[in-house]
Amino acid sequence: MPPNSSPDPAPISPALLRETRIGTDDRGTVLVLGGARTVPGAPALSGTAALRAGAGTLQLAVSERHAGALGVSVPESSVFGLPETDSGAIGGDAVDRLADVLPGAGTVVVGPGLTGAEETEDLLRRLVPAIAPDARVVLDAFALGALSRAPELAEPLSGRLVLTPNRTEAAFLDDCAEEDVDDLETAIRIAERYDAVVLLFGVVAEPDGRTWRDGSGHIGLATSGSGDVLAGLTGGFLARGADLAQAACWATHVHAVAGQRLIPDTGRTGLLARELVAEIPRVIAELER
C-alpha cells in the first residue's frame, strides 16, 4: 500500500483500492483452522469468504465430529478432521493431523470457531513452528486471546502476520480495559507490539505507524459470524498475492460495503453473516472494473 505521511489515517476508498489492485494470477491455498465442538459454522463462513475473495483452493481443519457435515456444506473445500479435547476444544495434538497439509498452505487463518484459552494457546505453540516459513497468517477470535497470553508466539511470524480483533480482543492484546480501546491508537500499539498488520473496526495499522481507515461500516456488522467473514476475506486476498496492509484494506472495505448493500433487505440490525458472503463478489467486481 502507498504510504501516508499524515498522522491521520489515509481514507480507504474505491479510488485507493483501484490504485492498488490485487492481481488475479496468484490463486493460492487458504487453510482455515477452527470449528471446535460448539462452533462448527465459523470456519465455513471464513472459508467461503476466502473463496469469494479469490483464493484458488480452500482447506478446512475442524473438529473431527463436524468434518463430514462441513465437507457437504462447503463442497469446494477439502476437510481435515481434528481431535477434540475433553471440553470440545481443539488443542495442540491437532497439529499432528496437519503435518502433510501445512507445508502447502500459503495462507493460514487460525481462530474461527476455536474455544478454550489454554487449549488454543497449546495449539498455537505447536502450530506456529509447523507453518511454512513463507506462509502468511491471519489470527482471529480465540487465537488472539491465546496470543495475548503468549506474545512471543508472534515473533516467528514477523512480517507475515495479520490480526483481526474486535474491541474485546483488542483490549486483551493491548492489556487495557475494553472501555479504553481507541480504534486508531489501540491498533497502532498492537501493530507495534506484535509486529503485525492490525485490522480493528475499519482501522488498518502497520507496525511502522502507517494507518488507513474505512468509514463504510455500520452497526449491522456487529453480528455473530461477521468477524469470521472478515478474517476469511483477508486470507483470500492474501492468497491472491496482496501484501498484508493491502489485503486488510481491501477486506475491511469489501466487508463494510457488502453490509451496506444488504440494508434495504435486512435493515441495519437484521443481516446475517452468510448474507455478507453472498454479496462479496458483486462488491469486488465493481472495484475491479
TrEMBL record:
Needed cofactors: Mg(2+)
This protein's UniProt keywords: ATP-binding, Kinase, Lyase, NAD, NADP, Nucleotide-binding, Transferase
Positions bound to AMP: 227
Keyword Cell membrane in annotation: no
One Gene Ontology term of the molecular function aspect: ADP-dependent NAD(P)H-hydrate dehydratase activity
PROSITE patterns reported for this sequence: YJEF_C_3 (PS51383)
Similarity comment text for this entry: Belongs to the NnrD/CARKD family.
Protein name: ADP-dependent (S)-NAD(P)H-hydrate dehydratase
